[in-house]
UniProtKB/TrEMBL annotation:
This is TRAPP II complex, Trs120 family-containing protein. It holds the Pfam family Ig_TRAPPC9-Trs120_1st. Residues 196-260 form the Trs120/TRAPPC9 N-terminal domain. It comes from Strongyloides ratti. Belongs to the NIBP family. InterPro entries: Ig_TRAPPC9_Trs120_1st (IPR058565), Trs120_TRAPPC9 (IPR013935), Trs120_TRAPPC9_N (IPR058563). GO terms for cellular component: trans-Golgi network. Residues 603-704 form the Trs120/TRAPPC9 first Ig-like domain.
Length: 1196
């Protein structure tokens, strides 16, 4: 049964000493270890369960037993003066074997009893465990208790209770002895020689004897738990001792009276450990532990003493309630004792202690018990929480014991006095006072003469004293790694320079005391917390000392382990070296690109709801996931604050939540040069998670400067959390493409390269393999990121794709084929984005002579854009490197509770180098053989150093010399699938994106229509290569392809009854009549009526982009100048139908070169929509122009 005592520290003089019956327990033989623990220690623990005994039924009181293992000589000397110092029983313990001599055990047991005061011994026991039972004999068999072994002790509690019962009964009988007749006089040890010649029949001598006997009876009452009755007896003893002038015993009586009064005030009931609440004692209870007139005890309620920890708790009363309570206790806070009506309160109890101390001062040989009385008086003030008076009392009475002139105590005893005072101030939370007396105790302890040098044991003794002073200077001693206790402030407050000196003193005491681990721990604490305050010389000295200490150890000193010094019961907390090295940031890295995971729910959601905000642009909010058994990386940003290169070994990460195998690494961190910026080193820490769940990185561990350092992050910004997914399948990819060595910062798992000439086409195979042993792969998708081609074949095309339901089983493979086509490298775009500017609707091709391509019509939608502002590709014809990516996305065939799909993507980078071979530099669209055909004229360049041969229109061949250009004429029919109003409708779409899509749709129709006519094959015999001429630049030109659409109106010409199909000049004379036959054709797609007029225009064409000069005066018309026409919608086969034919006659008046062109003017329609269509279609009319060279007669 363990209780809270009124004792400040173990071995400390306490008030409860007066009510504890001492029993000496000694091990007489060699101890036996059971389960790594001493059997004797276990026996003591079992005996301590009997430390409190309840006596009496009607009016119970408590008797306290104190089991001790050694006797104090001071107690033996003053056993008669203060009865509580006596040994009332002896328990000998012997652990025997069958071969042990039991007679030796008997002799030791008898000698043990003789070493004590045999007259004071009440009863004794010899406990024998093991041995031969038959050999047990002797005179005192009653005192011998035999047990077969330590475990088989079923009657142990009964036997001990029997011993305690005998002791209590005998003490009860002694306290009831009649002492009115003086039969003996208690004497101190050695006092007999002073009794010679005394008149023992004198009245003074009788009072002296009665007073001493009464004092001993009072002590017995205290030991038996009757403090109230003891008060009356002590008062009687004091009266007699005063009369007899027996001052030493009077001092002891005053001390007993003070202690008995205090216990009468607070009660004798024990307070068990763990009891949270205490009963508020009532100071108005009268006649405590007294009897009524008829001899019966009064019925009252016992009150337990206060809990020693209660003063740390706040009283939940208001300020006014505290004031009222204080006044109430001041008036009635006294206890009526006995029939004399005396009142006892705390001040009167302190007066009794002071009287006791004053009388003890008269005798030099009682200085030790005088000092113990002072400590007990201070303890009373301490338990009453009157800390101010307690400190003043100690300051008044302790000083004389520490004075150099007080030679009764040696330096060791003065050191013990300082330790006792330090313990009291520590319990009162007077930490500066505690530090002062602890350091004073060290000075007394180490103050030796020159002939007696200080030993290692001296420093071991003073080390805990100095170590415990650190809290007085604001230094925290609690381990920051203790997560089981409440979080506290780790900041060190107080004067830093004093703290450094205090820690250095502790370090020196541990160093000289041979405590290597403690010395290392204090050095590391100094460097961690005070590095910025130390000068370079001091730092170098500490590092040298640290190196010497660590070299003495076989194993690395672990800063994370708490050091326990058993000899002094000191626990040195762990230290975290967060400065050496200093981690300023931690970053979780995603897995490799082919291992990176994207989580998709089966509902099709890709995570959180997306809300667009322009403020989020540029921020990467992609979540990072890891997978079991995947190579993972964490980046630490580390700084070395030392001026020398720091070597860090076995650096690993500390995690929580999942199994994680961190790969240890070794670092050599560069030094920090004074005056320069510190170098930040990025350290990639690798590891493998081996279980799924939430993985939390809580710190790191390393070995640095000879010690093992464990750091657990307390900054929430450093504690990173990541989700670890289950083990997923990995796709392995092989290809027939030529692989390229990976370069730094390459984001592709496989980098390949291809070199080909423009127009060439190659097929390749890509093989994918499921490397997993158990998990299927499904939902395989292939996506190609490549430069966007506005026309013609794509750079890379997939020849065979995967079925949606295809599943790749474990350890199986699958092939798919791709084709790579050499596009014109001079027209490939710069980026691979899908969006393109308005200018991409036009041709981006520029000829060698940098002349712009002039179309016969203007662009319908973007006519306002200046062609000079269009960005063109001006890369020289020396080859082009185009980058493309094939991304293979696949999902793991796994079922999980969250309905999630885990996807990965494998990327193949392809660097395609296209060498220009046979390309197109320029093109024109001219009138064809009739109104429904057009001639496409291509300027074909041979950019190689070898002659090439062209094959087109199935059977036509043409040779092109090296670095030369040839012209190829291709006849192409117009496209009848597109209405002449189609591009007008596209321009009226409500958004640019819709306009772009509609125009691209029309462009693709025209591309499909004309691509078969543009199939020009080339071959270079010397290189044994062949291919097709890339016409993607032409096919991407909307302005060019629009000319292949049948316009609303087409005008064809015949001059003098001959069709005019070329652009050559017709030579005529001045005055010759020219018959200009006009045929007007309308598209069969026209669906409404419209009308207009046709006239002739004559002008000079100055070329070079200059405006035309109209010269109507040079033309003399014969007949009608303007001819009207009317178009009615009709059903007709073919692309065009003839509206009418008309002959114009004219002659030229002057010499020169003239252009004559029919001019069509349309009348306004009543329908607004039809009028808009006519206005847009008017720009696309295909009208031929005739050229005339007019001369005078005789010059032809």
């Amino acid at each position: 049964m363990k209780i809270n005592s009124l004792r400040i520290a173990p071995g400390f003089p306490g008030l409860e000493d007066h009510q504890q019956i001492q029993i000496l327990v000694v091990n007489l033989c060699e101890d036996v270890m059971i389960g790594g623990e001493s059997s004797f220690c276990k026996l003591l623990n079992r005996l301590n369960d009997h430390s409190v005994k309840k006596v009496g039924d009607q009016e119970p009181h408590y008797v306290y037993i104190k089991f001790i293992t050694q006797n104090d000589p001071l107690n033996l000397k003053f056993a008669n003066l203060q009865v509580y110092r006596r040994i009332f029983a002896v328990i000998g313990v012997a652990f025997l074997n069958d071969d042990d001599n039991i007679k030796e055990t008997y002799d030791k047991y008898e000698n043990l009893k003789k070493s004590c005061d045999e007259d004071a011994l009440v009863d004794n026991r010899l406990l024998i465990f093991g041995g031969n039972k038959e050999k047990i004999n002797g005179e005192n068999l009653r005192e011998i208790i035999y047990y077969e072994n330590f475990k088989d002790t079923q009657t142990f509690n009964y036997d001990i209770q029997g011993l305690l019962k005998n002791v209590i009964i005998i003490l009860q009988s002694k306290r009831l002895e009649d002492i009115n007749e003086v039969k003996r006089c208690p004497l101190l040890s050695g006092e007999e020689k002073y009794q010679v010649g005394l008149d023992k029949q004198s009245k003074n001598y009788k009072k002296k004897c009665i007073g001493r006997l009464k004092k001993q009876i009072g002590d017995l009452h205290m030991l038996l738990g009757l403090p109230s009755q003891a008060v009356d007896i002590y008062n009687i003893a004091i009266e007699n001792l005063k009369s007899a002038n027996d001052l030493l015993w009077l001092a002891a009586a005053y001390e007993g009276l003070a202690v008995a009064s205090y216990y009468a005030l607070i009660g004798n009931e024990p307070l068990y450990e763990g009891k949270k609440s205490t009963v508020q004692r009532n100071h108005t209870i009268n006649n405590f532990d007294t009897k009524n007139i008829d001899g019966t005890y009064k019925n009252f309620k016992k009150h337990s003493r206060r809990n020693s920890d209660e003063f740390t708790k706040n009283i939940s009363t208001t300020f006014d309630e505290k004031i009222k309570l204080k006044g109430f206790l001041k008036n009635i806070g006294k206890l009526t004792i006995g029939n004399k009506g005396g009142f006892i309160d705390i001040p009167s109890i302190m007066d009794k202690f002071i009287l006791s101390i004053e009388n003890f001062e008269r005798f030099s040989y009682s200085a030790k018990i005088e000092y113990q009385c002072v400590i007990k008086a201070a303890s009373l003030l301490f338990w009453e929480h009157d800390f101010i008076k307690c400190e003043a009392f100690l300051r008044e009475h302790i000083g004389k014991y520490l004075d150099d002139s007080f030679v009764t105590f040696n330096n060791f005893e003065k050191s013990s006095i300082c330790v006792d005072c330090a313990n009291i101030f520590k319990e009162m939370n007077f930490m500066r006072k505690h530090a002062f007396f602890s350091r004073l105790a060290v000075l007394f302890r180490l103050h030796v003469s020159d002939e007696e040098p200080r030993t290692e044991n001296d420093y071991k003794y003073v080390y805990p004293l100095l170590y415990n002073t650190l809290t007085g200077y604001g230094i925290q001693l609690k381990s920051p790694l203790d997560i089981n206790k409440k979080k506290f402030n780790l900041n060190i407050s107080g004067p830093s320079q004093i703290q450094v000196k205090a820690i250095q003193e502790v370090f020196m005491s541990s160093l000289r005391g041979g405590l290597v681990h403690s010395s290392i721990r204090h050095l590391c604490f100094l460097l961690q917390n005070y590095y910025d305050l130390l000068d370079q010389k001091a730092i170098d000295s500490m590092l040298d000392e640290l190196k010497k200490l660590t070299s003495k150890l076989q194993d690395k000193h672990n800063l994370n382990q708490i050091i326990q010094l058993d000899y002094c019961n000191v626990l040195i907390p762990a230290v975290q070296w967060t400065k050496f090295p200093t981690v300023i940031d931690i970053e979780l890295k995603p897995l490799k690109h082919n291992l990176d995971i994207n989580i998709i729910t089966k509902r099709g959601s890709y995570g959180d709801i997306f809300i667009y905000s322009p403020f989020q642009q540029g921020h990467n909010n992609v979540k990072i996931y890891w997978s079991v058994d995947c190579y993972s990386t964490v980046t630490l940003k580390i700084i070395n604050c030392f001026h020398f290169e720091l070597t860090v070994t076995n650096l690993i990460l500390l995690v929580d939540g999942c199994d994680f195998e961190s790969i240890p690494i070794k670092l050599h961190l560069p030094p920090t040069i004074k005056g320069q910026q510190q170098t930040i080193i990025d350290v990639d820490m690798q590891g493998f998670p081996h279980s799924e769940g939430t993985l939390k990185f809580i710190g790191y561990s390393c070995e640095v400067l000879g010690v093992k350092n464990v750091v657990k992050f307390d900054n929430e910004q450093f504690i990173k959390t990541i989700r670890v997914l289950p083990k997923l399948p990995i796709l392995e990819v092989d290809t027939t493409l030529e692989k390229q060595l990976l370069k730094e910062e390459n984001h592709f798992e496989t980098q390949t390269e291809v070199t080909l000439f423009s127009g060439q086409k190659f097929n390749h195979t890509i093989t994918i393999t499921n490397t997993s042993d158990t998990i299927n792969i499904r939902n395989i998708r292939i996506k190609i990121q490549q430069p966007k081609i506005s026309g013609g074949p794509q750079l890379i095309s997939i020849l065979e794709n995967f079925n949606k339901d295809f599943i790749l089983l474990p350890k199986t493979s699958k092939d798919f084929k791709i084709s790579i086509y050499g596009i014109d490298p001079t027209t490939a775009p710069e980026n691979t984005t899908e969006t393109f500017p308005v200018s991409s609707l036009f041709s981006k091709h520029i000829s060698d002579n940098n002349f712009s391509i002039v179309s016969s019509t203007n662009n319908l939608l973007f006519s306002e854009i200046d062609e000079q502002q269009i960005s063109h590709d001006l890369i020289p014809y020396i080859g082009r490197l185009l980058n493309s990516t094939i991304k293979i996305t696949y999902a793991a065939d796994l079922e999980n509770d969250n309905n999630e799909i885990y996807e990965r993507t494998y990327s193949i980078g392809i660097a395609i180098k296209i060498i220009p071979a046979i390309t197109i530099s320029n093109w024109h669209v001219l009138s064809g053989e009739d109104a429904s055909t057009r001639y496409i004229v291509l300027d074909v360049n041979n950019l190689t150093d070898y002659d090439a041969e062209l094959n087109y229109l199935h059977n036509k061949q043409l040779s092109v010399q090296a670095k030369d250009t040839c012209r190829v004429l291709l006849l192409c029919s117009c496209c009848g699938e597109i209405s002449p109003f189609a591009f007008s409708h596209a321009s009226q779409r409500p958004s640019f994106h819709m306009q772009k899509e509609e125009i691209e749709k029309l462009r693709r129709i025209l591309e499909d229509h004309v691509s078969n006519h543009l199939n020009i094959k080339w071959s270079i015999p010397k290189l044994n290569i062949n291919g097709n001429v890339p016409v993607g630049s032409l096919l991407s030109s909307v302005s060019c392809l629009k000319q292949l659409v049948v316009p609303l109106l087409t005008v064809t010409l015949s001059i003098n009854m001959k069709p005019y199909t070329s652009e050559d000049d017709i030579i005529v004379y001045i005055g010759d009549i020219v018959t200009f036959n006009i045929t007007l054709l309308v598209s069969t797609k026209a669906s409404f009526n419209f009308s207009g007029t046709i006239s002739l225009l004559c002008f000079h064409d100055l070329q070079n982009g200059e405006e035309h000069i109209y010269v109507p005066e040079s033309l003399i018309s014969i007949g009608s100048l303007v001819v009207p026409f009317n178009v009615q919608p009709q059903q007709s086969d073919g692309l065009l139908r003839i509206v009418f034919k008309k002959d114009f006659r004219f002659m030229f008046r002057y010499e020169g070169i003239y252009k004559v062109k029919p001019n069509i003017f349309l009348n306004k329609c009543n329908n607004i929509e039809e009028q808009k269509l006519l206005q847009s279609a008017e720009k696309e009319f295909f009208i031929s122009t005739a050229s005339f060279n007019v001369t005078t007669k005789g010059t032809k």
